[in-house]
Specification:
By secondary structure, the protein is of the alpha+beta class. The protein is built from 5 helices and 4 strands, in the order αβαβαββαα. A 4-stranded mixed beta sheet has the order 2-1-3-4, with helices on both faces. Helix 1 packs across helix 3.
Length: about 170
C-alpha cells in the first residue's frame, strides 16, 4: 500500500515535455489547481466527486479515474505502476505539470483536498497534525468497506456537460 506521505519525483520541467495524450490533458490544468485521482466505480468516491463539484465554485479541482489513462500516466511519471484491481487510495496531485508536482495518498490527500474548498472546509486540514498512522488507520477502515457500504458501480459516472471539462478522461 502506498505511503501517506507525498512522493516527490522529477516530472517534466515543462508541459511541452509531456509524452502522451493523457498527460497532455494534465498540461492544460493550471499549476494552482489540483487533480483528484479517484476510484471510478466506487459508490462512495462517486458521491464525493458529486459533493465536490458544486462546492468548488472556483473550478480548481479536476478529476480522473484511477482506472483511466491519465492516472496511469501520472503514476508512471512518478515511478509507480498503474492501479491494478481495486484502488485502495484517493490520490491528490498538487501543482500538476510543474517541477513542484506532488502526489498525496489516503488521509493526506483527503485533508489537503479540503483546502481547495471554500468556507469552513479548509479547517479540516488541521487534522494533518495527527500522525499519519492514526489518520490512515481511520481512512483504511472506510476504504476497505466502501464497496460493501456504498456499492460498486458498473462504470464511471458521466459528468454533466457543464462539468465535463473538469474530467481529464
Amino acid at each position: 500500500m502506498a505511503s501517506a506521505e507525498p512522493w516527490s519525483g522529477s516530472p517534466p520541467a515543462t508541459p511541452a515535455a509531456l509524452p502522451s495524450p493523457a498527460l497532455a490533458k494534465v498540461a492544460g490544468v493550471p499549476a494552482d489547481h489540483v487533480i483528484v485521482l479517484y476510484d471510478g466505480v466506487c459508490g462512495l468516491c462517486s458521491r464525493i466527486v458529486s459533493f465536490l463539484l458544486p462546492r468548488d465554485r472556483a473550478r480548481r479541482i479536476h478529476f480522473a479515474a484511477l482506472q483511466g489513462p491519465v492516472a496511469a500516466e501520472l503514476l508512471r511519471r512518478h515511478g509507480q505502476p498503474p492501479v491494478d484491481g481495486d484502488p485502495q487510495s484517493i490520490i491528490l496531485v498538487q501543482a500538476p505539470g510543474t517541477d513542484r508536482e506532488r502526489l498525496f495518498y489516503r488521509s493526506s490527500a483527503a485533508l489537503r483536498l479540503a483546502r481547495a474548498l471554500p468556507g469552513a472546509w479548509p479547517a479540516l486540514s488541521v487534522l494533518l497534525a495527527v500522525p499519519p498512522v492514526v489518520r490512515d488507520w481511520v481512512y483504511d477502515r472506510v476504504a476497505n468497506n466502501r464497496y460493501r457500504i456504498f456499492g460498486r458501480l458498473d462504470a464511471c459516472t458521466l459528468p454533466s456537460p457543464e462539468n465535463r471539462p473538469r474530467f481529464l478522461d
